[in-house]
């Protein structure tokens, strides 16, 4: 498949108008902020090495998606790009809710039950 460089530049420009990409970037940002606040309030040691490693992981994930998404659009694989973006939005959304729950903010009973089940499964696998 031959890729038109002008079309590629146009698709990269379209990222700024893509609602899913905006939601994903904000989800990553909120996860980083809520995770930092949780670590600070819960009293965990805030280690610069661990923090830097986490930031690098988030940054690289975003970078990969921001690079691959325009190519998927050009290749008419829009659904795959949307699927990947939605997966990561959900992943980060769960992490944000978990951070908020550990901060002591009230969560609906259904959400609390789900996280308790996940915690139990995690403890059973140890």
TrEMBL record:
Keywords from the named record: Membrane, Transmembrane, Transmembrane helix
Keyword Transmembrane: yes
Record carries keyword Ligase: no
Localization per record: Membrane
Signal peptide feature range: none
Membrane-spanning intervals of the chain: 20-43, 55-72, 78-97
UniProt cross-references to Pfam families, sorted A to Z: Phage_holin_4_1
Family annotation (InterPro entries): Phage_holin_4_1
Family statement: Belongs to the bacteriophage holin family. Cp-1 holin subfamily.
Protein name: Holin
């Amino acid at each position: 498949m031959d890729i038109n460089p002008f079309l590629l530049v146009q698709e990269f420009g379209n990222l700024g108008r893509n609602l899913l990409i905006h939601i994903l970037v904000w989800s990553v940002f909120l996860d980083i902020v809520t995770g930092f606040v949780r670590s600070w309030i819960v009293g965990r040691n805030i280690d610069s090495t661990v923090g830097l490693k986490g930031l690098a992981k988030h940054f690289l994930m975003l970078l990969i998606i921001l690079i691959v998404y325009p190519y998927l659009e050009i290749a008419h694989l829009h659904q795959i790009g949307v699927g990947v973006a939605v997966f990561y939005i959900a992943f980060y959304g769960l992490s944000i809710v978990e951070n908020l729950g550990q901060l002591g903010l009230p969560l609906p009973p259904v959400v609390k039950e789900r996280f308790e089940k996940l915690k139990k499964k995690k403890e059973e696998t140890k």
